[in-house]
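seq as requested:
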Amino acid sequence: MITIPQVVTIAGIDSSGGAGINADMKTFHNQKVCSATIVTGLTAQNTYGVQKILPTNKDFILAQFDSVFSDLEISAAKTGALFDTAQVEGVIQGLKKYKPKHLVVDPVMVAKGGAILLTKEAIDLIKDELLPLAELVTPNLEEAEVMTGYQITDENSLLNSLHDIQKLGAKNVLIKGGHGQGELVRDYLLLTDGSVSTYDSKRLLTERTHGTGDTLSSYITAHLAMGESLREIMPNAKAFISEAISKTIMVGHGHGPLNHWVVDPVMVAKGGAILLTKEAIDLIKDELLPLAELVTPNLEEAEVMTGYQITDENSLLNSLHDIQKLGAKNVLIKGGHGQGELVRDYLLLTDGSVSTYDSKRLLTERTHGTGDTLSSYITAHLAMGESLREIMPNAKAFISEAISKTIMVGHGHGPLNHWVNIND
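struct tokens:
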């Protein structure tokens, strides 16, 4: 039986699917944690706005707490929209009763356009009783102003607000810069030790940002449940959000949702076409790889990263080490795009050792998504605490099984069979 981190989102339902519990669940699924829900209210809304709300009564909120926490092993929780005083009271009562190890509070107080979403009494309850329970609170700039009572006009006032919000009881404070101005989105994180870190990403000019705050706080919650620290989580969280915004999906006619299906950036398509600009590739090499425990290029992607052709085993071994020098701790070059009867993958570990993993090359066009599937399998088992040496044989077996047990979808390069079971 597989053990998986379990989390709960305590928030409202977005009928259009872009924000609230809907965005939380998509993010949790993407990050491979199992999520329960405690619904604080329903909304009739779409990408244009909210048309009507129906808050959940306090007794039913508490009943949901009892149902979830009496059965599931919840290691992390997050809150979102809490609607009004009665709902805030119910959530605080439930959290005080069950005391989840990690609590992320996304203080949904201000709508796009600046309208205050909660009564003063509800805001005071959040400040006085909910924040002291939180490991992390994640206000945007307007919400930070509501919580502190003053305007944030420059970096000095922003730094002051970090400390003033921390004084309300939250152990760590993340003020998000998405509602600010300028070419960069800069988030500020104040930790319990008093240190402040900043995390920058390019501001993307799009209206497809509905649910960004929910997605970020959910990503953080998922990785807290996996045992990671906020310092470890934040660079990856920022990268995930940027990817989910930049790879736009066309849903609705107003402020559309993020793309929660995004995976690790891919450089080279089947056939050799370069999928990223030189600037984007350089960013990956210079700033993303140094954050990586593992990078998983195919042969063509390894050639793009190193700048030379891989023509034999010697040049492949050289490329392993040259990619590791870019900052990734471990490097896996996949052999699926090679030739011959065997698919041979090469793994270079941090200790300098190189291992090879062979599988029979299967003559089929049903291989669409093989690289994504392999990296997802590895990611899942790293989250379970396994080592790369333990993971790789099972990962190769899973991929071979998923390719060999073909499913007929589409008329071209069809997908793998993700329903296979290798009893690993």
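Residues 299 and 403 are 19 Å apart (CA to CA).
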